[in-house]
Design brief:
four-stranded mixed β-sheet; globular
């Protein structure tokens, strides 16, 4: 039997909209933060904005001090990317990262990183 919602899902996928079926194929953008970091709190609205603008990426946010899984993932990314002096906020997409928060500068760097990450697919 024909399912109209399936047709819509297929149509949106053809238009380039990510679907639940293609979620794992999208590049991953990870945001690592600490609950008590003022720079991280300033970065959070920016990450939320990116998530709305870049539906072709998967977004994950991880708190690194209180959340053991967030800490584990942070350590794994630091090792993978060979970051010598890790800190938060840390933004990761593919094999590139941006660390720290300087208003007006970090946003540009993160957007450039996203473009590189998307271009690497």
């Amino acid at each position: 039997m024909f399912d109209p919602s399936r047709r819509l899902l297929i149509g949106l996928a053809l238009l380039g909209w990510p679907s639940a079926l293609s979620a794992d194929e999208r590049p991953l953008f990870s945001f690592f933060y600490a609950f008590d970091c003022p720079h991280c709190h300033k970065a959070k609205p920016f990450v939320a904005k990116l998530e709305k603008q870049h539906r072709d990426l998967r977004f994950e946010s991880w708190e690194v001090k209180k959340d053991p899984e967030g800490r584990r993932r942070f350590v794994a990314e630091v090792k993978r990317l060979k970051i010598r002096e890790p800190g938060v906020p840390l933004f990761v997409c593919g094999n590139t990262h941006v660390m720290g928060w300087v208003p007006g500068e970090t946003e540009k760097c993160v957007r450039k990183m996203i473009a590189q990450c998307k271009g690497a697919r």
